[in-house]
């Protein structure tokens, strides 16, 4: 079964659909049963049986089945946000006294959550590479967490090598695959134990959804679904699940268009004299490009560039001159967006990730590439000599 079929048709020809082109949205908060015994049996398997919205729902379940199939995983669990999925996943794998290894730069709130866990006796260490992992691993280490490409820097990790290292040491590996989507990268096939996504980004695709998902084997998903998912209460709504399903229908086509525009814009910026570097794995000049080609089938359109400046006012001036790139957080929708960590990220988090002041993140949307390139060129010229 190929990805296009999964995105567009998997589960949508079943009897409960009643021939509807769009899957029904089950708005009810609970489901009733013929007997008390039936209810009792259903509650024992509330992660799979329809009992109460906080457990699961037919509309949410369809989205989960599609996402699991796309990632080549056994099961998926959708959450009300990406951080809901990340927090529940990490919590399900650690206890007081445990240690987490974080490889490379990761999403800022993920780091903040790991700091939050310190008051419960869970510690963590950030490392840059496997050599750092060798030095930082402890007897209490239980989890290896990473992204590839990494947050803001977009460094590429050799996923198979990293997961083999973790497996040999008895660690569970968790990877954030939001950047690539399952269309361009399938970490579970490379040895990752659990994959997380923010569904708010490319998978939703229209900046009208906040959601998250974790995908992996039943042995890890089932206890998480019965415990952290239920207790944290970060349940995805059926309306948001319907948006996920609609987003998936066009995901393969949108990702191809994002890649085309992203490559064009990144290529232009890589040659501009006011730009020190462009961190985009799709460019042959990127240090991780060869590795990316071995484990990815394409590239999204989120990347960063470093302006030739160490001045926050100069960075802000560049951003304010842009007309077609909207200023805002998040990414993955139709609209092109710009953001600068030095202007918006907690200083300690930025320092941990080694992000320079001149770093600017671009999310290239689906507008014409020529229009976006002209916008960037004018803004770079309008700032003048960067100081």
TrEMBL record:
The keyword Amino-acid biosynthesis does not apply. The keyword Ligase does not apply. Keywords: Pyridoxal phosphate. Its cofactor is pyridoxal 5'-phosphate. Belongs to the trans-sulfuration enzymes family. This is Trans-sulfuration enzyme family protein. It comes from Nonomuraea guangzhouensis.
């Amino acid at each position: 079964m190929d990805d296009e079929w999964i995105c567009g048709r998997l589960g949508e020809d079943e009897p409960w659909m009643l021939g509807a082109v769009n899957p029904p949205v089950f708005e009810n908060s609970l489901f009733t049963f013929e007997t008390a015994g039936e209810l009792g049996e259903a509650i024992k398997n509330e992660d799979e049986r329809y009992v109460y919205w906080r457990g699961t729902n037919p509309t949410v379940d369809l989205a989960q089945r599609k996402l699991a199939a796309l990632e080549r995983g056994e099961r998926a669990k959708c959450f009300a946000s990406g951080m809901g999925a990340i927090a529940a996943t990490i919590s399900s794998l650690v206890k007081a006294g445990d240690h987490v290894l974080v490889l490379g730069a990761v999403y800022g709130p993920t780091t903040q959550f790991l700091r939050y866990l310190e008051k419960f006796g869970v510690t963590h260490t950030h490392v840059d590479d496997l050599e750092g992992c060798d030095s930082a691993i402890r007897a209490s280490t239980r989890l290896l967490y990473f992204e590839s490409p990494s947050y803001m820097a977009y460094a590429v990790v050799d996923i198979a090598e990293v997961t083999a290292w973790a497996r040999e040491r008895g660690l569970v590996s968790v990877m954030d695959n939001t950047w690539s989507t399952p269309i361009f990268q399938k970490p579970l096939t490379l040895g990752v134990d659990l994959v997380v996504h923010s569904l708010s980004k490319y998978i939703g695709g229209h900046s009208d959804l906040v959601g998250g998902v974790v995908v992996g084997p039943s042995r890890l998903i089932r206890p998480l679904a019965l415990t952290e998912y239920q207790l944290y209460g970060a349940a995805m709504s059926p309306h948001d699940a319907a948006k996920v399903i609609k987003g998936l229908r066009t995901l393969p086509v949108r990702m191809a268009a994002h890649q085309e525009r992203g490559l064009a814009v990144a290529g232009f910026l890589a040659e501009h004299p006011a730009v020190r570097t462009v961190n985009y794995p799709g460019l042959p000049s990127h240090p991780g490009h060869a590795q990316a080609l071995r484990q990815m089938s394409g590239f999204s359109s989120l990347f960063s560039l470093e302006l030739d400046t160490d001045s926050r006012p100069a960075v802000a001036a560049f951003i304010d001159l842009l007309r077609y790139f909207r200023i805002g957080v998040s990414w993955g929708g139709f609209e092109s967006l710009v953001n600068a960590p030095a202007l918006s990220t907690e200083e300690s988090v930025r320092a941990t990730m080694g992000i320079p002041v001149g770093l600017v993140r671009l999310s290239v949307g689906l507008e014409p590439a020529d229009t976006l390139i002209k916008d960037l060129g004018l803004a770079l010229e309008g700032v003048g000599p960067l100081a």
